[in-house]
Amino acid sequence: MQSSPAPPVATSAGLRAPRPERLEGVGFVAIDFGTSNSAVALPAGGGVRLVALEPGHPTMPTAVFYRADTPPQQLEAERLYGRAALAAYVEGLDGRLMRSMKSILGSSLLDQSTDIGCGRTVRYRDVVTGYLRRLKAVAEAEAGQTLTRVVLGRPVFFVDDDPVRDARAAAALEAAARQVGFTEVQYQFEPIAAALDHESHIDREQLVLVADIGGGTSDFSLVRVGPSRRGRAERRDDILANHGVHLAGTDFDRHVELASILPLLGYRTLRPARPGETPREVPSGVYFDLATWHLINTVYAPARIAELRGMKGWYADPRHHARLMATVHERLGHALAAAAEQAKIDVALQGRAHIGLELLESGLQAELQEDQAARAIEADLERIVQAAAETVRMAGMPPAAVDVLYFTGGSTGLRPLVDRIAAGFPAAERVRGDRFASVAQGLGLHARVVYGA
Q: Are residues 217 and 155 in contact, defined by beta-carbon separation less than 8 angstroms?
């Protein structure tokens, strides 16, 4: 694949393209370790520039594929990252795909091990560490030097309403960063980083509500920004409030899959009617697990498959059970989840999605319309909208005081979500940042300040 032109450089004067600037030998980097995608920024030419984590791409899917065909004499399984990891899975290579690793920080899964094939296991903690090591190695290759200092982005809350688990998640990510060789580790809230990226493009003071809605969390921050504040290392007084909920793109994907794909496998269908009984739904637990990335592989356990096989008589339509069994026997759970994710993207771009499911059954397909997607995520959408309003209330500000709504994160491509948030702030200007890179660029600008570049 040929590399595309280098990404633009974010500076206090805005975006410049393309980049002739040399990298500065200051030994630090900024990393946006995202639930769905990750990005890395290095200092360059008085600003920052994004690292091409893959040829032609300044962002990389947060995905790792462990190859089961790694020779047994190798101590560790061979790994593929990002788009190569996703392609290996789609092409049917024998191995284990891992995604949404950020969502397990703070959970009891972190120190558990999982099977990756050919008698090998790996701890989830080591999956996170290995991915960070990859980001660091690519950044060092471009910088031409060892990088020992890092600013990491973090959500406002890794875990909602549980300060102990939230602190545990932050500590786990810092420990992973130190394990791969960073000796100085600092955090910055992801929505604050997005505000800093926006600040680099304006010439007057503004009160900005940043909506950073990515793969795992929806975070909001009310921030004062402006040219006179730019470049300060300490911005605590400019942050009027921040708030967030642990709901975002991966939750939308799950609801989309449950609404549009899994009914074809029997989700929410009724068991055959029996005399004198009201028909009941087939058990839904397997469908919830199939729609949750880090739980999909639990459905493939032999005992679970035997249990599902024994449920054949519970399905009024034998095709539903046959499709379910094909999914678990052929290990198609991640492919169905990826189809749901793509359907969400297609709806965001085109207002509808055609979901081809030929991998499951010849000619099988599903459709998803924008209004159907909106209904599927309604409960989550309302919680996110309320989180935005609560952020401004926490600051003691009326909605009319907000000058700008700044949207970033992959899930802000979903128009119903953006419209619902904006409806609460009718006087505010809508500004869309780079959905996948504005946080990394803001983290890089912050890193320049705190590390004295």
A: yes
